From TrEMBL:
Signal peptide: none
Organism classification: Bacteria, Bacillati, Bacillota, Bacilli, Bacillales
Catalytic activity: dihydroxyacetone phosphate = methylglyoxal + phosphate
One GO BP annotation of this record: methylglyoxal biosynthetic process
Residues covered by the MGS-like domain: 1-140
EC number: 4.2.3.3
Enzyme class name: lyase
Pfam families xref list: MGS
Function recorded in the entry: Catalyzes the formation of methylglyoxal from dihydroxyacetone phosphate.
Name of this protein: Methylglyoxal synthase
Residues annotated as binding substrate: H9, K13, T35, G36, T37, T38, S55, G56, H88
SMART domains, alphabetized: MGS
InterPro entries: Methylgl_synth (IPR004363), Methylglyoxal_synth_AS (IPR018148), MGS-like_dom (IPR011607), MGS-like_dom_sf (IPR036914)
Amino acid sequence: MMKIALIAHDRKKEEIVNFAVAYEHVLKPYQLYATGTTGARIMESTSLSVHRFMSGPLGGDQQIGALVAQNELDLLIFLRDPLMAQPHEPDIIALLRLCDVQGIPVATNVATAELLVKCLERGDFAWRELVHKYKPGIEE
């Protein structure tokens, strides 16, 4: 089963909730993860079940990063606020770097998130099943 993480900075929380409402039918069959407040707000506005980690600044980004490092996440939607400095910016950069290392598709804005979810809806992520089947170790 595909595993999708949803994260949003404070000023993007309403945007990710609206996104989840709009694409609830697409997201419903998948295992969803989110940082604390984002997950709570999505569950309040939809019928989606979301496994909530800690708030991002309190370690939630790192908890999701642990899934990525183990190649246990298939898609990350992280609506970032590019106009606001984040106190946990190093954690955010580390999470995005891990996604690049593992080849995890990432959306950092709604336009890209919509493209990825439309691909998900069409079944274009079947290649992730192969990744899970043949998890290569990191070469030393």
